[in-house]
Specification:
The structure is a single chain. This protein has 125 residues and is α/β, with parallel strands linked by helices. It has one domain: NAD(P)-binding Rossmann-like Domain (Rossmann fold, 3-Layer(aba) Sandwich). It has five helices and four strands; from the N terminus they run βαβααβαβα. It has helices at residues 10-21, 33-39, 46-49, 62-71, 88-97; strands spanning 2-6, 25-29, 54-57, 79-82. Helix 1 links the parallel strand 1 (2-6) and strand 2. Helix 1 (10-21) runs parallel beside helix 2 and helix 4 packs parallel to helix 5 (88-97). The longest helix is centred in the first third of the chain and has 12 residues, at 10-21. The radius of gyration is 14 Å and the shape is globular. The two termini are 20 Å apart.
């Protein structure tokens, strides 16, 4: 499975490392080159990150998610998994930018395929 992780801070770095340890092909992007080096995965720019099966967004706020979505290619087959903590108003803007609209977020049906990754501290390893 090819996975790109955008945002390699504490949360994104951990996901990238765990996925790579499980044998997945993982690339990463962060505004900080140091964060990319610390994650230990090959770097990619944002548009190339979307040439994966899954793109995991682990960003500080919805504003950065919007920036990434605006930099994404017009068409992608990647499943986008957004793990960003954001307010409801930020989430609405992100969903509108992604073409998933609606005035009531409760009306939306979002399907996310869960990646088979466990924490190294999980008792179920």
């Amino acid at each position: 499975m090819r996975v790109s992780v955008i945002g390699l801070g504490r949360m994104g770095r951990g996901m990238a490392r765990n996925l790579a340890r499980r044998g997945h092909e993982v690339r990463g992007y962060d505004v900080s080159e140091e964060a990319v080096r610390a994650a230990g995965v090959p770097p990619c720019d944002v548009p190339r990150c979307f040439e994966a099966d899954y793109v995991v967004l682990a960003l500080p706020t919805g504003r950065e998610v919007l920036d990434v979505l605006r930099s994404a290619p017009a068409s992608t087959d990647a499943v986008i998994v957004d793990t960003t903590t954001q307010s409801l108003s930020e989430l609405r803007r992100v969903l509108e930018a992604a073409g998933i609209g609606g005035s009531n977020v409760a009306e939306l049906a979002l399907y996310v395929k869960v990646l088979n990754v466990q924490s190294p501290h999980s008792p179920h390893r």
